[in-house]
Amino acid sequence: MLHFSGYDWLVRDLLSYRGGSMTSFDPANAWTDANGALHLRATKNQDGWSCAEVRLTRSLGYGTYLFVVRDISHLEPSAVLSLFTWDDMIGTDENRQELDIEMSRWGSRTTRMRNTWCSPITSQRISFDLICQPACSLTRSGGSLGR
What we know:
Layout: E1 2-4, E2 7-11, E3 16-18, E4 21-23, E5 30-32, E6 38-40, E7 43-45, E8 48-50, E9 54-56, E10 66-70, E11 80-85, E12 99-104, E13 114-118, E14 125-129, E15 135-139, E16 145-146
Antiparallel strand pairs: 1-2, 2-9, 3-4, 5-6, 7-8, 10-15, 11-12, 12-13, 13-14, 15-16
């Protein structure tokens, strides 16, 4: 467990099979620094890649959520930073009350950082370019994207 932004967060340490592939998680890939910033990383070891996942120990309920992300300009083209809300209590794995924000170049070194969001209810995808160099903020209120 780690403490970030006034909340306690669980750090994932189990394998996950989602999206058609197995994902490995290493608790050493998630930490907070002396300034209170949360760091998440992906690392390569003898078995392949492992990443980081943290989740709140309690629900914050419905409301406005603000994610502030700093310096994702150097992410590898195939890396994806996912920020999401997830309701374990409602629906099935295919039909959660979920809001996904995924930032990536989706495998291309020349593509701008791009967000793809999918509504679980309508399966509608919304994509837009992100101007995130060196920092960006994303807010749900009003659906705006600010720098």
